[in-house]
Amino acid sequence: MTMSDTTRFMRLEIENMNDGDDLRRLQDAFVQEFSYDFEIAADFETKEVTIDGLWEEDLDVIDVVRETGFTITYALAI
């Protein structure tokens, strides 16, 4: 069985995600790049960001995060 390379749920650890302004900046970048209804949340202590409902290729999502100026230290796509 072959798995699709599109993702419904991603968990990222982003080194320089510090507050709600950073999260809004990342969310705005996703809205500009992708036209989907998705949810994004962050735990600023652990630097963990979860994205649910964004049906895009994993590398496209990671590219947007990097282009927005953030550094990913861990990524899990389900």
Primary descriptors:
78 residues, 4-stranded antiparallel sheet, alpha+beta
Provide structural commentary:
The chain has two helices and four strands. It has 78 residues and is of the alpha+beta class. It has a four-stranded antiparallel β-sheet, covered by helices on one side. A hairpin with a 4-residue loop joins strand 2 (39-43) and strand 3 (48-57). The longest helix is centred in the middle third of the chain and has 14 residues, at 20-33.
**Run of helices and strands:** EHEEHE
Mean pLDDT: 88
Q: Helix content range of the residues, please?
A: 25-40%
Taking the sheet with the most strands, its summary is: 4 strands, antiparallel
Termini separation comes to 16 Å
β-sheet strand percentage: 35-45%
Shape: globular
Number of helices: 2
Q: Report the C-alpha radius of gyration, rounded.
A: 12 Å
Record the strand order, biggest sheet: 2-3-1-4
Number of strands: 4
Low-confidence stretches: none
Backbone structural class: alpha+beta
